[in-house]
Amino acid sequence: MHELHHFPPPAVLNMTAQEVTQDRLENQPAGDRFKRAGLLLAVIFAVGFVTVVMKIAGGFGSRSEWGYHAAAFAYLLLTAQSAVLVSVALRMVKAHWRRSLARVSEMFAMVGLFNFLVFIPLLWVLPSTENRLSLWFDLPGNSPHIWDTLTMAILVLCGLGLLYFASIPDLATIRDHSEGKKMIRYRRLAMGWEGTPKQWKSLHAGLGVLGGFYFMMLIYAHAMISVDFSMSLVPGWKDAIFPTYHALSGLQAGLATLIVTLFILRRFGGLNTYIEVDQFWALSKILLATCLLWFYFWWAGFFTYWYGRTPAEQGVLQYIMFETYRIPFFSAFVLCFPMPFLILMWNIMRKTDWGPTLAASFVLLGAMFNVVRMYVPAFAIEDPTSHALKVMPVANWPSISDILGFAGVIAGAILVYMLSSRVFPLISLWEVKEGMLLQRIRTFLKTEIRVMGKPE
Q1: Positive or negative: CA dihedral 351, 352, 355, 361
Q2: Alpha-carbon distances of 224 from 22, 67, 127, 130, 302, rounded to whole Å
Q3: Helix (H/G/I), strand (E/B), else coil: 388
Q4: pLDDT tens digits for 57-112?
Q5: pTM of the full predicted structure?
Q6: Which of 37, 64, 21, 15 is CA-nearest to residue 264?
Q7: CA 248, CA 291: separation in Å to the nearest integer?
């Protein structure tokens, strides 16, 4: 086989532990490029925030005006909050190559806190479940308002706890290399961390528990939000596969979010020493699998409705896929399945940093169209109490305020991530230094291989 198809050569960080600490503490993101980007995002967020305030001032009587706000909330759930799961899953399977991307993934927990604020106005827009089909059967009509809020709150708290516990050793490192007010601030954040065996044991146990709860709550949140804020609002839409499809879409979009973030940090954030092609190579294979799974779960849900062909089922297909919202549907289909699949199927593309990033960019754009065709139609239904779509509603295409509001939510999420990087190191120092002790490069025949130690 041609050498372009071979696995990329193993990379080893040729630095000492002290050099890693010094490099990351002296090169925190604070340059002119960082400030200009932050200022631009702040302006876009401010404009979007004004449009949301104007909608709130106008009341919550018209659900259709909040369709794109719901789509923006769902988009952050699919992308940012699902990106945290990558670090959780890879830590569970003890993947060595995830060490330099662990903190990049966990930092999206801060975006989850921002998304919870985006979620709050939707509680006033969501109608009661009385006299309409829903997940809650004979429970009180405000059940989705209570349980969805509780689910999102627990998910956010688990994410923040995961980020904080994983950062404690690094916060202590910053404490030990600082002075004045900065040292006092990080001394409080480090909570007396000294690196004793008991503290390390507690840290690993805590990360395992918090990671497991985050995994569980994220899947639960996908199921609850997809049903209560989308499927149950469309008469005739009863799809048992849809919550799973929504969660799988989140896994795909979360991977894509992380890949694009890693590319930006590698090319423009000065982290090319720590973020190697290894990470893109490994993540791209998982992303390739999720592209196939995306198509499989979509096909499973679609085929059931297409085969049944009752009037209610035909109305749903026409409304959210093939007639009213066919443009966002076909855009999502092409961008989430064939486009990234055709890129990632080649080793030549996967062993670069730009190939997986290109595929991930298509996925992120496709995920945006996907939430639009799932949530905007649901919020455009005036009467969700009927059992079928008697009259096909017209498409709710975005107005200027909808576009500004959506862009403001995305800009706010990116801005929160950037500001969080000023508090938490983007590279998990203790995990990277731990990995340096466990690997060596050895020559085997005519190639070089990485020899790993497994203390577990």
Answers
A1: positive
A2: 45, 17, 15, 17, 20
A3: coil
A4: 988 888 999 999 999 999 999 999 999 999 999 999 988 889 999 999 999 999 99
A5: 0.95
A6: 37
A7: 9
